[in-house]
Amino acid sequence: MRTWRAGLFVLILLFGQAFVLAQDGATPASTSDSKPTTEAAAKPAVPSLPSVPATLTQDQIKELIQKVADNDIQNDNKQRDYTYIEHEVHNRLDGKGQTKSTETKTYEILEIYGEQVERLIEKDDKPLPAKEAAKEEEKIQKLIDKREKESPENRRKREAKEEKDREEDRQFVREIDDAYNFALVGTELVGGREAWVIAAEPRLGFVPHMKYANFLPKFHGRVWIDKTDVQLAKMDVECLDTVAWGVFLARFHKGSRFMLEQTRVNDEVWLPRELSVKVDLRLALLKNFRVDVEQTFRDYKKFRTDAKIVGIGEVQEQK
């Protein structure tokens, strides 16, 4: 989704890249009740919940997490086939945690030539003034024009870069496996569906190999994995220590928290329902900021692959 690729939410990526970076439809795990073969029992694709949670081994939990990561990569692909509405409430807090000011924005997320683009449609729950709305439409039109004129070579380069980014995401999963000790602590209902609850705590001696992986030990949290679909249903991540991002860009302080809940859409894909971010940070050399951001996602609609993308001028001519 657009939000956690933005700078403010880079920290949720650092912990949850294996779980949320994507959101692409996954093939549901088998729910067969047949007993596994000896070979399957030695390395189950989807561990069944034991009567005593502690009996689930680290290897089994890691394999379960790997399955979730694979599913999320598929979710990312399918998520691009959807348009939706994103509503954001941004609260600025004072030193006592009280709200000083509130700003809300509503975006329509569109699908244009395989790329998701946001269009701001409301501020403070009111439609944009005509001038601002026209600027948003102009932004969309520029992208349409750019994609229409894109050469085959430039398209190949763009798609190659996107594939490289996806491969880096897959490699990041291995870093997460090495960075944490996992424990199955039980099951809970999320959205009326049963989910495994898995705790993750930093592992001593972790040696990062990828960019940004050195931040992983500064976070801990829990993930809720839907038992039927083996998908990320919920995630709650907390910052354990100050995290410096860049030399002077930002410092996220202990206690910053990121919570995500997802939902099943059209029986084919898991997509965000709500994202909550509570951050205490210092930007550049400025004073500290305390922000509370809540985002909700709704009105998911599958984009028809045979739909024709038209420019603003063509729409006006057809009226």
From the structure above, extract its key features.
319 residues; alpha+beta; 13-stranded antiparallel sheet; 29% helix; 37% strand; disordered N terminus
What does this protein structure show overall?
By secondary structure, the protein is α+β, with helices and mostly antiparallel strands. The protein has one domain. The chain contains 6 helices and 13 strands. Strands 1, 2, 3, 4, 5, 6, 7, 8, 9, 10, 11, 12 and 13 form a 13-stranded antiparallel β-sheet that branches. A hairpin with a 4-residue loop joins strand 9 (243-245) and strand 10. Helix 1 packs across helix 3 (58-79) and helix 3 packs antiparallel against helix 5.
Main sheet attributes: strand count, strand direction, barrel closure: 13 strands, antiparallel
Work out the count of structural domains.
Answer: 1
Cα-to-Cα separation, first versus last residue? 33 Å
Number of helices: 6
Order of helices and strands: HHHEEEEHHEEEEEEEEEH
Helical proportion, percent range: 25-40%
Rg to the nearest angstrom?
Answer: 21 Å
Q: What share of the residues does DSSP label as strand, in percent? A: 35-45%
Number of strands: 13
Helix-strand category: alpha+beta
Low-confidence stretches: 1-54, 306-319
Q: Judging from the principal axes of the Cα atoms, what is the shape?
A: globular
Average pLDDT, to the nearest integer?
75
